[in-house]
Amino acid sequence: xxxxxxxxxxxxxxxxxxxxxxxxxxxxxxxxxxxxxxxxxxxxxxxxxxxxxxxxxxxxxxxxxxxxxxxxxxxxxxxxxxxxxxxxxxxxxxxxxxxxxxxxxxxxxxxxxxxxxxxxxxxxxxxxxxxxxxxxxxxxxxxxxxxxxxxxxxxxxxxxxxxxxxxxxxxxxxxxxxxxxxxxxxxxxxxxxxxxxxxxxxxxxxxxxxxxxxxxxxxxxxxxxxxxxxxxxxxxxxxxxxxxxxxxxxxxxxxxxxxxxxxxxxx
Length: 267
Known about the structure:
Elements: E1 16-20, H1 27-36, E2 44-50, H2 53-64, E3 70-76, H3 84-91, E4 97-100, E5 112-113, E6 116-117, H4 125-140, E7 144-146, H5 166-179, E8 184-187, H6 219-232, H7 235-238, E9 241-244, E10 250-254, E11 261-266
Parallel strand pairs: 1-2, 1-4, 2-3, 4-7, 8-9, 9-11
Antiparallel strand pairs: 5-6, 10-11
Helix pairs in contact: 1-6, 3-4
Protein name: NmrA-like domain-containing protein
Domain NmrA-like: 16-155
Organism: Meripilus lineatus
């Protein structure tokens, strides 16, 4: 993690954020972390949700359970005949950051989409929606996109890999090479299937050792870390940044297909 002096930040780097996948397994924890942050009163949150009764009901419950956050709900119809891009661009007007928390069934045994098999995770419904949101985000002038990564370091996967997770690597390439839309990638390793009771992250820096035994990273930890990076760290330190919760080392990895150096911060 950077040694940025947080006292130098008098206002949040970003105040208007949109969340894709807020009704999933991670989204509610991101809202909790935003709500618990001292800058919560300054934030404006937009939830992008599919127009379906279950999603709308869950979204309404999330909004009511975070009364200290200014949250608006934007119903999106992901249908080529419904002018999805126009809906998304309108929903993302003046938004500075998009946080994607779409579902990640990549490690599940059943990776089928409808009646056909998906070649990689990017062809699953949630990730197809994520790409549509990214295209609209670029048009709307969004400053930073946080893709649904969070687990395995997918940027190290060769672009021609047969791994199912290669869809995540291809999406990072799409953001950088096709859209030139700055991203911030956060990895946390495997998350528990059942979320344990909330425990704060132990203090970790380049000068402290991991606890023994090491702590188990949870969705609460991941969400808290993402919110910390967005609200407590200067944008120049997070734009095009790759961050990881586990470990205390700082490594430089070499991206496989281009020979370009990527800095991996482990905090």
